[in-house]
Design goal:
The chain is mainly α. The protein is built from 15 helices and no strands. Helix 5 packs antiparallel against helix 6, helix 8 crosses helix 10 (about 230-255) and helix 10 (about 230-255) runs antiparallel to helix 13.
Length: about 375
């Protein structure tokens, strides 16, 4: 009788399994990594407890005056409680601030609905159109019994959302057209698109904002003036469109030539080929860099402060100018940083879920 030898499959050594194995592999895999891990742990032990102590344990949440806040050793969150409406809504009339609050909620809901696949229907653009009209009515007023408010009085979070939302909504299709134009076989179209993209990408956004605010009115006819907020919005759109165009062009170049040849063999026209075959694949590839552009655009709206527009940063500066509450800039800027972080992190998390859902193969 022959016996078949039994082979025992042994797992990894005990030090390579479980929590100890993870720590050894990721934090102590080499002497250098061990030193860096020890330094990081020491830095966290030195900073995190002190930050928690200042932010929460010794913080003052209910002080009535700045003197009471200064007597405490922690953060003065009572300043945010006192000035949050000025930071969030700028110098918009105090009694009418429910209107920019509703406008901000509506814009956020529109963005959230656009991220839910169930709303990806032909009527979604109509929903956006109606929503933006309602936002305009709420912010401007002058109808339905609402008092008229000039956009020079807009500020804070609603203005930041408006600049970012309109910037993305209008810059994205313009960027697509520029990308298609740059890859076009028509020399004139390609030359115009190349000059525009390279010219805009060659200057910082702050220069475009200065030009739109200071130089553009000099070239306008006598008596013709474009609103300052509109000029800033156009500059943001033109700037973002150039970067979107280059990103989409990279996606177009990643599509194999066989896709174009297959579309040509089916007799599809250029625009139908792009709409149904090429662009869907190219856009899936460039989801990560496109989201990076959108996040940068949302943060870059803070640059409008240099031309006197009351975004979140400028509104915080105005709140800090109050002599009765002066000296709490750390709390003010932490507050607006938290607002920016919530929106930008939400966009980033959604982009990762979108990559997984579309199975692009390019997930970060």
């Amino acid at each position: 009788m022959s016996h078949t030898p039994t082979s025992t499959v042994s797992g990894p050594p005990p030090l390579q399994r479980g929590t100890l194995g993870w720590l050894r592999q990721n934090l102590f895999s080499s002497p250098l990594n061990a030193i860096l891990t020890a330094l990081s742990a020491w830095l966290l032990l030195m900073t995190v407890p002190a930050m928690i102590d200042w932010l929460f344990i010794k913080a003052n949440f209910d002080a009535q005056t700045a003197q009471d806040c200064r007597a405490s050793a922690g953060a003065c969150w009572a300043f945010i409680r006192e000035k949050h409406r000025l930071i969030l809504f700028g110098i918009y009339p105090y009694d009418e601030q429910w209107r920019p609050l509703l406008a901000s909620i509506l814009l956020t809901l529109l963005i959230v609905c656009s991220c839910v696949r169930w709303f990806w229907k032909p009527w979604l653009p109509l929903l956006w159109l109606v929503g933006l009209i309602v936002v305009g009515i709420l912010m401007w007023g002058g109808v339905l019994g609402l008092s008229y408010v000039e956009n020079s009085l807009w500020g804070g979070l609603p203005l930041t959302l408006i600049l970012a939302t309109f910037g993305i909504v209008f810059a994205f299709p313009l960027g697509l057209l520029l990308a298609l134009g740059r890859t076009s076989r028509l020399p004139a179209v390609k030359a115009v698109c190349v000059v525009y993209i390279e010219l805009i990408r060659g200057v910082p956004l702050i220069s475009l904002l200065f030009m739109s605010s200071v130089m553009l009115p000099l070239f306008m006819p006598e008596g013709f003036n474009i609103d300052k907020l509109l000029r800033a919005q156009i500059a943001i759109i033109l700037f973002a469109a150039a970067y979107i165009a280059e990103t989409v062009r990279g996606g177009l170049q990643a599509i194999p030539k066989g896709q174009y040849e297959g579309a040509a063999s089916l007799g599809l026209s250029y625009w139908r080929t792009m709409r149904q075959i090429i662009l869907p694949q190219a856009l899936k590839i460039v989801i990560p860099p496109l989201v990076g552009i959108f996040i940068s655009l949302f943060k870059d709206t803070s640059l409008v402060v240099i031309i006197g527009i009351f975004d979140l940063t400028q509104a915080a500066k105005v709140a800090l100018a109050d002599a009765a509450w002066r000296g709490f800039s750390r709390e003010a800027y932490l507050f607006i940083a938290l607002i920016y972080f919530v929106f930008c992190y939400s966009i980033s998390r959604y982009s990762r879920s979108l990559e997984r859902r579309l199975q692009t193969g390019y997930e970060r």
